[in-house]
Design brief:
Layout: E1 5-6, E2 19-30, E3 33-34, E4 40-45, E5 48-52, E6 60-64, E7 68-74, E8 82-88, E9 107-112, H1 117-130, H2 139-146, H3 151-200, H4 207-220, H5 228-231, H6 235-255, E10 259-261, H7 262-273, H8 280-287, H9 289-292, E11 297-301, E12 307-311, H10 316-330, H11 335-342, H12 346-358, E13 362-367, E14 370-375, H13 377-380
Antiparallel strand pairs: 1-6, 2-3, 2-4, 2-9, 4-5, 5-6, 7-8, 8-9, 10-12, 11-12, 13-14
Helix pairs in contact: 2-3, 3-4, 6-8, 10-12, 11-12
Amino acid sequence: MDRWEWSESDIFDKPGESFVCQQAVVSLYDGEDKSTFVHGLLTLTTHRLQWKDPKNRSRILSLPLSLVVFLEQEAAGFSKSAKIVVHLNSADSNKPAGPNRQSRYNYIKLSFKQSGEREFFRELSEQLQQKRWQQSLPPAQRVVATGRHRGIMGIERSIQQKQKATDSNITQSFQDLSKLIEKAKEMVALSKTIATKIKDKQGDITEDETVKFKSYLLSMGIPNPVTRETHGTGDKYNTELAKELSKALMNPLKESGGIMTLTDVYCRVNRARGMELLSPEDLINACEMLEILRLPVRLKTFDSGVMVLQLQSHDEEQIIKDTTKTVEENQSMTSEELSQNAGISVILAKERLLLTEKVGGVCRDESVEGLRFYPNLFLTKCS
């Protein structure tokens, strides 16, 4: 753990750094020893690994990919999660402060509680091969490093060519961006016009036509999204954003049975906002304001670390009763089977089963074939 360093919340602060992938509910090991950093959000960028505590957003660790020597995989077993073993070089003496000053291990382990380790291993291996963090040097330094024997004239000519190509790319990018912004304005104006027509001609428009209009509006996005430019920063921005989320997600939540994972919320909201994308941190900050503002949508974190949004009217007792009954009718069920039966995601199906198990509604059987839940016969046969 002495290679990890405390990090800022913004993960894209290195030149040329970009997001690669992300996995929730990941714990960190210092060699063979389990650390206190458990069930966090692990993010891979082109330059580093970053671990973030979902309950304490200021508790963030970062590990440069330049320290990684090679990787290994450890398969999951009985009561044992799958892991990625990351072997590391020694850190520089002037390394930023981290959670540990010294470790007796030269490797760490990433423990994946909710699978996803294969995809993460593949992405991490690819980034180690590409070594894009080495490309973040200034252009002049890169030219000197790769062309030391070409002479001064060759180096100057190469720099001029790179600057010319960069200027051309920037100009073209801004032209394309301007066109996209203009098109977005047209789409927003069109959505307002359609909304007005629906309101003015309710008696003349059939139900089927209304459904079609609403689907068009959904694909066009939120007309006037809350931004930092329009509402400032801090609590004011988070408050207005929370109100927007509550209003925009009411119908999707009702259609999803009153609950939705934060991952699905993030995708839906950013799709609706068009150009004004939200960061994961802004989304969480706004969601934490929902209960404070007494809005009808609330943020909930399950024991496993999975975060969801749910309607305040969402009845967990009824969900437990329905899940217990469904398992009894089918004699046994896995998360995947309940997902198909209830029309919800596998993650939410698993959380329903775990919640029902917690109150004694069902019992689990964990084997090499996976996790399966059965009716609790201790309650039905022994009572």
